[in-house]
Amino acid sequence: MSKHKSEAFTCPHCQNESSREIVESINVDLSPEMREKVRDLSCFAWTCPVCGKASLVIDPCLYHDMSNQFMVWLSPDGSPLDASGFDPLAGYTLRWVESPNAFREKIDVLERGLDDRAIELMKLILAMQLQKSMDIVDLVFHSFDERTGAFRFVVVLSDGAEQYAAMQGDTYARIARDVEERLFTPARDFVKVDIDWATAALELLKGSE
User: Fold this and answer.
1) How many angstroms separate the Cα of 87 from the Cα of each of 64, 90, 91, 95, 186?
2) How far lies 165's CA from each of 65, 111, 116, in Å?
3) 108-135 pLDDT tens trace
């Protein structure tokens, strides 16, 4: 199930105060309909009952996927979640992110059973290759082609344009193996695995060669 609560909220458009329902946690095994609402971020959408205008309001939210054994904590203010009370969740992957786009990307990666650490390192390596000819703002995991074994990423450019770039599956396999064998990632803490993590991890991997 999903955990909700209500609170007063001032509409950013008309400045009227109304009640707003906040989604504090989501368990997609118990509330499977929430999976799509996370993908399109409609779980954070709010429509003012006075002026009728819609707003995207991002609140802290814990996403729980029991089948795939992972949790992702969305923390807009950058506060990590204390995992000390999660002892029964041995074997879980625990991650935290700060933005809604990173939230749904991380969930997509983990839902596919992929190692998000390897994916972030692939994004970093791809960015380093492409930035010689492109002004890159962001790289986002898009899909995995089971037929070709290619991993596809969306390259977001500074002018707002988007392009696709790909890396082969053997690259992922090699990086995933190196991460598993040569890097330590705390298993009982919510860890922020992003571009900064990948930058530090790449230096560690280079240093251990």
Assistant:
1) 15, 6, 10, 15, 13
2) 29, 21, 18
3) 999 999 999 999 999 999 999 998 888 9
